Structure formats: structure tokens, C-alpha cells
Amino acid sequence: MPRAAIGDLPLARGGRLTDAGVAYQTWGQRGPEAVLICHALTGDQHPADWGPAQGWWREIVGPGKVIDTDRSFVVAMNVIGSCYGSTGPDPNGLLPDGRPFPEITVDDMVEAQRRVLVQLGVERVALVIGGSLGGLQALAWSGQDTLPVRHAIAIGAADRLPALQVALCHAQHVALELGLAHGDAAGGLRAARAVAMATYRSEPHFEARFGRNPAPAGRRRFAVESYLDHHGDRLAERFSAWSYLLLSRAMANFAWDLSVGRDTRIDLVSIERDWLFPEQSVNSLNSALRMLGVPGGLARLETEMGHDAFLAEQNALAGILGTLLAQAQAAPPAGGAAGIAPRNRAAF
Q1: Every domain of the chain and the residues it spans
Q2: I need a labelling partner for 284 at 20 to 30 A (CA). Which of 22, 30, 35, 187 fits?
Q3: Are 251 and 169 in contact (CB under 8 A)?
Q4: Count of CB atoms within 10 A of residue 290's CB?
Q5: 54: pLDDT strictly greater than 80
Q6: Measuring CA to CA, which residue among 106, 107, 154, 158 is closest to residue 127?
Q7: At what angle do helices 241-253 and 106-119 cross, to 10 degrees?
Q8: Using CA atoms, how far apart are residues 60 and 243, in angstroms rounded to an integer?
Q9: Using CA atoms, how far apart are residues 291 and 181, in angstroms rounded to an integer?
Q10: What confidence tier does 53 reach under pLDDT thresholds 50, 70, 90?
């Protein structure tokens, strides 16, 4: 697995990572332009058909797909603080020198990614795209000015989490902290995941799939409880409780400054029945961006699923993305951003 050494990384909330590294994956012929794919909370650097998640965007990223790895130099990275190869906390939540792993922000993730792209010879970013926490990264990328970004697409993401969702994140953090304090990191992670999964799916989805049906014999009382247990068990097998706590806090603390000048086209994709980043929040951000004169638009992923539709309904999302990319390629470059000639109308 490729891993880039990015040196010492000062962090926005204080402290630094010493001799930090970022795990990444690339596709296509390396060149001065790149497409950057950003993953969600427990994702990894393998959106195509490979990796622990079996390619979490395999219907979107690949040869001949909407993000066409035959036509573009595509890069995906594991964020710092995660547990899939980039610098993150050890099993005790510590740095290699024994100090507690410091708090990180979405801006820190973006700065680490920027350093890797520079090492890869990238001079401008044709597209940065992601869903959920990946969408926050896409927004943050559009606000930095050291590596030109032509186009950002944020899916199921907004400039900040509403208060109720911050409260639900806090409930997850309490569960994680209690588990870690009592030597039961897996138990804390399972409890946190149960709360999170309730925000990733919609009420109609839960009702149609589970209702108040009983669980199989010997399991929890209700089928929906068994479902949440199953997802908690799966996550505990593959992810770090410390990483989950760090990244979830970064997500809750994210507050994007719209007053920063930017030369990036920004498209937003809201998700019907999204409870984590409600459509109202995405719509409000879209209105604010257009009032500021930022080019771009708003699309809607229609679904009964809720927030997780950006992973679960990839064919529908691919159609939306194809339209947004075609519109962006037909439009003049945003502001002073570097113009990037499209290779075809609907694929990067």
C-alpha cells in the first residue's frame, strides 16, 4: 500500500503530528491534474473494487465509469487519524512517543492531502468529491488557496451539523469514552455505531424493513435491534474506537467559513430523508453560496434510504454526478481557477 511521508504537521487546534504519513491509492496516468476522492467516517482509500469495504464506490469509480480511471489521474487517501495506514492513534489512543493523540480537524485532513498531491506532482485539482465526512473535506478543499481546485462536489454534507445531530454525535462520544475508560473499546464502538446507524437510515426505511418484527430466536427482542448489533459487531472487527472518536469529533466541530473568497465551482447533492445532514441544511448552504456568487448548483438524490444512500444507491448517484460533471465542463472556469479541458462530457 503506498504511503507518503509528509513531515511534521501542525494542527489547527494545537499540537502537531511528527513524521506524519498518509496512505493513498492512485489510478490512471499520473499528471499535473488530479481527481481527489474523499472517504466518509469509517471509509478508506479504496473506493474502487478493492479494499476492506470491497470498493465502497465501485459503481462510480473505475474504467468507463462516471469517475473514469482510464481518462483521469484519480487519487484517494486515508485521512489522518484513521486506522487504514495513515498516521493515527495506537490501540491506547497515543502517539508513538507516548503522548495522547491530539485533536484533528477537517482542515488538518485537507492539509495532509494537499502535501501528498504536491509530492505526486499535482498542480491543480480538477475535481474533489466525497459524501458525508468526505463531503466536508470537499467543502474545505474549496476554501484553501494553495492548490487550485476547479470543482468540488459535496454529497450529503453541509457547512455544519445542526444542534440535534451534534447531540447525537455527543451520545456516540460518551459511549466510546465509557468503553475506552473501562477497557471495552469494542463495546463502546458497538454502542456508538448503533446510534450512528439510526441517523444513517430514514424512518420509512426502518419501518418498511423491520417494523416491530421480532428478532430471530436467541437474539434481541426486535429485528431492528439485531440489525444494529450486527453493524456494531462488523465495525468493531475492522475499525479503531480511538479513530472513530477522533474523526467523529472532527465532523461535529466542522464549521465552514463561507466568507472566505474562493474560485471553485461548488455543487451540492442533498439526500432525501437524510437525518444526519438534513436537506434543509444543504438547501440553506446552497442559497448562501449562490447569494455570494459562487458558481454551481444543487441536485437531489431521491430515496427512502436516508443518509447512507450515497453508498447504497450508487447507480442513481452516478446519474446525478454525470449530469453535474457535464454541466461543469460546459461552463467557463470558476473565477481564477485553472481551466481543465474535459476529456468527454460526463466523466472524469
Answers
A1: 3-160+260-330, 163-252
A2: 35
A3: yes
A4: 14
A5: no
A6: 154
A7: 100
A8: 26
A9: 47
A10: very low
Q: Is 132 a catalytic residue?
A: yes
The mean of the pLDDT values for the chain is 92
Q: Of the listed 72, 274, 281, 308, which one is catalytic?
A: 274
Q: Report the top-level CATH class of 163-252.
A: mainly alpha
Whole-number Å distance between alpha carbons of 243 and 192: 12
- At residue 336 the predicted structure's pLDDT band, cuts being 50, 70 and 90, is very low
Q: What is the pLDDT of residue 310?
A: 98
Which residue's entry shows cell 495522547? 100
132, 142, 243, 270: the active-site residue: 132
Taking 90 as the threshold, does the pLDDT of residue 12 lie above it?
Answer: yes
In whole angstroms, give the CA distance from residue 149 to residue 337.
Answer: 6
For range 249-278, the mean pLDDT: 93
274 is catalytic: yes
Say whether 140 sits in a helix, a strand or coil.
helix
**Could you confirm whether domain 3-160+260-330 is CATH 2.60.40.10?**
no
pLDDT reported for residue 217 = 77
pLDDT above 60: residue 131: yes
The closest of 240, 241, 245 to 102, measured between CA atoms, is 245
- Mean predicted confidence (pLDDT) in 295-314: 97
Q: Which residues contact 308 (CB under 8 A, 6 or more apart)?
A: 200, 201
Q: CA-CA distance, 157 to 138, in Å (whole number)?
A: 9
Q: What is the pLDDT of residue 343?
A: 33
- DSSP H/E element including 19: strand 16-27
CA distances from 180 to 193, 195, 198, 238, 253 (A): 15, 17, 22, 16, 21
